[in-house]
Specification:
heterodimer; A: 114 residues; mainly beta; 0% helix; globular; B: 112 residues; six-stranded mixed sheet; five-stranded antiparallel sheet
């Protein structure tokens, strides 16, 4: 299995531009999670899906952030418009449903907003 | 609010020494996970602890779980440089699906 796949791996953009991050979970995993990691705030859960349905988006910072999961093998996290404070590493993770299943993390997307 | 606290936050130790990282959490949970993150890399699953008293070992690392004390430990035996990384613990709160709550992380540096 290729593991969780994220693209792009690095993204540099200017303030005000739209940014779209992509994630392909491990086949058969019903849960998908988006995290953000910064030095100041550590690892934050933004949103997670179960069977393509958003379950908890309380971690999404504000309306500029949106996430979708149109099918079991693809999810996007969009920031529009982007701001310098959005600069961070964004991780996607997936897991099997059920008790005691660890989450498997993708390589992350390092986002820099100038 | 569920809290997961790790200590120490930073740990510098010499090769060959032993040390323990602690993970305390504030909610009832009997599932605890340890991850490792190398600089600039992603998180890698190390251990999954699923019950009170669970102990797992891999090489120089051993993790244990005491659900009554709401405490997990990650013990490092005879540290080597390759263990330098940041270690995270995570718990999942009952009845919240597979949502994890991560600790702040412990940055370990092993000095030759």
């Amino acid at each position: 299995d290729a593991g969780v796949i994220q693209s792009p791996r690095h993204e540099v953009t200017e303030m005000g531009q739209e940014v779209t991050l992509r994630c392909k979970p491990i086949s058969g995993h019903d849960y998908l999670f988006w995290y953000r990691q910064t030095m100041m705030r550590g690892l934050e859960l933004l949103i997670y899906f179960n069977n393509n349905v958003p379950i908890d988006d309380s971690g999404m910072p504000e309306d500029r952030f949106s996430a979708k999961m149109p099918n079991a093998s693809f999810s996007t996290l969009k920031i529009q418009p982007s701001e310098p404070r959005d600069s961070a590493v964004y991780f996607c993770a997936s897991s099997f449903p059920g008790w005691g299943n660890e989450q498997f993390f993708g390589p992350g997307t390092r986002l820099t907003v100038l | 609010e569920l809290k997961v606290e790790q200590n120490p936050l930073f740990l510098s130790m010499q090769e060959g020494k032993n040390y323990t990282i602690y993970c305390n959490y504030s909610t009832t949970s009997d599932r605890l996970y340890w991850y490792r993150q190398d600089p600039g890399k992603s998180l890698e699953s190390l251990f999954v602890l699923l019950s009170n008293g669970a102990v797992k070992q891999e090489g120089r690392l051993m993790a244990s779980l005491d659900t009554k004390a709401r405490l997990s430990t990650l013990h490092i035996t005879a540290a080597v440089h390759d263990l330098s990384a940041t270690y995270f613990c995570a718990v999942d709160k009952r009845n919240t699906g597979n949502q994890f709550y991560f600790g702040t992380g412990t940055s370990l540096t092993v000095i030759p």
